Fold this protein.
Amino acid sequence: MNLDPKTIMDSSSKRSAPGDDDGVAESPSGRHTNSTPLSLTHPISPPLKKRRLVNAEELEDKDHDTRTTPRQTFRSPFQLTKIKDLPAELNKDTYTLKDILGDPLISECWEFNYLHDIDFLMAAFDEDVRHLVKVHVVHGFWKREDPSRQQLQEDASRYKNVELHAAFLPEMFGTHHSKMFILLRHDATAEVIIHTGNLIARDWTNMTQGAWFSPRLPLLKPGQVEAQEPQIGNGAKFKIDFLNYLRAYDTKRPTCKGIINQLVKYDFSSVKGSLIASVPGRHPISPDDSIKTTQFGWAAMKSALKAIPVHETQPEIAVQISSIATLGPTDTWLKSTFFASLAGGKPQTPRRSTAQPSFKVVFPTPDEIRKSLDGYSSGGSIHTKIQSAQQAKQLQYLRPIFHHWANDSSDGVPLDHPQAKQHVSGRNRAAPHIKTYIRFYSPPSASQTSSSSSSSSSGAGNQQQQQTKRIDWALLTSANLSKQAWGDSPSSSSSSSSSTIRISSYEIGVLVWPALYSSSDKDTTAAASAIMEPVFLTDHHHLDHNDKAEATTTTTTTTSPTPPTIIPLRMPYNLPLQRYGPSETPWVATATHTEPDWMGRTWER
């Protein structure tokens, strides 16, 4: 389904008109929006204490409660934003900014980002409580004379309930690039949303973005101690790392102390995932991987992956980003430091080393930008450089692993199996601002127990009958491909035997993997009977729909094997990936592009 932008624009009757975001829609956390003000249908006063709180199991389909089959089903841990100029069938299970902030029960919001439009942010709150919500905006414009800081201050001055906080940035080339909401509610719950979009309208219109939503976190009861022992992937470890990340803002002056003091009181035990964050400065690399030590940058990724089971059948890691910085004239940092940190994992077989994965870097070409919904305008958010001699050398070692975003280039390398149908994400014309890092593997043909065992692809929309890839782990993050985001190569001082990592920027992301969703909550790193598979055009696996249809005729006996837990992962790009052709280059926003985009515009620089 490779949709031409002109065709999409001409089919306005197939999609909601601009401004129809207020129609009834369910958000990832079960919220609904509609044209009637939410405040008329939801009480603002706190509900009764016995109100059932949303927990991790809310990810499960409620429609499955009466099924006789024991298969657990889940919604994708990552969701995509709604794209304004795409039809409804390509916007299933998506969310908008109003879905996140439109709940009238929100009492306090902490918004972390790189770019901020205060009016755009405030318009997303429920109109009846917009002036009551305590809004904290954390930004990285630390120079008082910075025009961006001055504009932010001017915009915030129009709202008495908005407070600005400048993040501490000790590194010269660092930025406050993290993208996150922390929401506190009148019903005594909290929620963390880690996402990929700047807080500006363009990023929430026709750009592909993604988010991870925590469950609603209840307050700890008086005298209650943390129920979990910290373990990679569980809520107790996530809480330790998350609070340590926030404490980094207070290195020089109190910035996040207020929200830290509140979050300590909440129960994170329902969280499934590992926090992968970066904070500026030099950080020791813990040799013993202490569970109570928070690592940052690539060291955090390397530490977490040591505990995650990985498969050895044709592993490949797709690094999909919206910006590539200057990495150096040779691939030393890229391969020896960064790719090495992503290549680890816990072998499925003891005393056996893991197979080394191949790497693919997913980044759009100028032609893909020209064909995108916003044409060249979307290219202003996507960055790399190839003009200088050093950058030309970088292009030389990246070219063999560059892959397309849209995967439909006539100049690209033909697919290995051109007869195979593509798995269509529906986002090939929505330019990428999302950042994902995913390890795929090919399951042995004998173990095709899930999608290949099904003869139907109905219900999920274009799910293929034979899924060729599964997923060992997936990361959604604000971090692009740069030393500033992930940290430089490790260095050691003469006075210390320990190594350190130097990071310039703030970044934040969440790593997920199948074992987190197995039937046992006791071990989040065991190779359990759970598998993660890519899904397209929906947040649900097509077997979930098949199981519903078969529930009336299927009876599970005590001798029947328990089917594996299937965790769907919503894909932002088509599969399989298409490699760049010999003449193709990545999109460069600082270069002039004279070939008109689909709207007839050129890009002059």
In short: The first helix runs from residue 5 to 10. Confidence is low (pLDDT under 50) at residues 5-68, 446-466, 548-559.
